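TL;DR need structure tokens for one chain.
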Amino acid sequence: MKIKLLTAALFISALCFGAPKYNPGSFVYIDVENKADFARTDVPVVVKIDSITSKLKHYTNQRICLFINDKEINTQFDDTDGDGKKDEVAFMLNLKAGQKQRVMARIVPTSYNVKNYEQEVYSVLMHRTKNADNTETTRPDTAISSDKDDMYNKVYLHGMVFESGPVAYRVYFNNKQTIDVYGKVKSRLEIPITQWHTTNKQLSEGYGDDILLVGNSVGVGTFKGWSGSEAIHTEAFGKRTQRIVSKGHLRNIMELELNDWEYQGQKINAKIRYTQYARHRDVQVDVFLSDNAKGMSFCSGVQKFPEDMRFSSDENNLVAMWGKGFAQKDTVKHPNKETVGMAVAIAPEYSDGIKEDPLNQLIIMKPGENNSIRYFFQAFWLKEQNGFKTPDEYFNYTKQWKKNVLAPVSVTFSTK
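>> reply
TL;DR here they are.
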């Protein structure tokens, strides 16, 4: 018993800050390398937690924190598969071209006070109920499902909403499933205050606004079916679900799931996952398809604009649009036209070329390994402070952005 107590005391002592060494088996090094020839700011790094814990000899479900030179870094631990256990840890780094950064993951004692980091992202999904007295009741939820196209007015804000400092997006809970955009003047969280529908007073105070009239288009980054000539809505399905996978402080993870989607003569399943990081205007989209979707074609892209429209593409895996138009159907109440830039980028292995239909510029997408697709989208508003002033400036940025998001960092593990 004395030996066990002495070992525990030495173990906790070794974890104290300022100690030159840590107890072997209580920590793992995570080496993150930027192999690109350009610097990266706030580049996301995602690590499977079992990649860490499997290398910790002393791990018995204790708390783990990540450090650089004994300084705790901002992290978010997520349960991404819904089994009730955290399976991923996400963090962000600034990396110079070719730089390798060593991060230490280690067990911390129960007495360690984990930092409380600033809330930099926000997400919401709410039921909406009309009462007998014509009032409205809303209640938050983490998942809402329906076997009919009847949820557009039953969900507050018409679908799930997620936001970072630069921009907010919502995914309509209907057959269109379109992604709509809320632009910002200042980089900050606003949806809890404006609820997407900004008042005139809030506009005068510098708050953002709904900046896109999507109609029947893809908006920006919407995952759509492809008829061979145009993007198509989801008209027939067994069940559609919107859910919040992770409601954290550093990243949002949201999902749209389709079961028994009648597509190209078969019933397929599709799970579309949206991941948005703090301080990022872009969103990572991961599509997971059932086995019988192998060889099928899908699409995403950016909608066209009625005025001042400019289009840019790059190597069949980037489409970008700049244009101007009304943001609301009610042009009497909302007479101002908005200038917007939008882009979608995808790795070459998922791209089957760029096409145009009456409403959109599209990238045709094909499933890759494990019947999955990954792509990215983003939007910009001309009224942003310190933003882009011309379409050429924005298009040049999107080409570098594409290189950035399609060049993931390298992650390796070491105990020495």
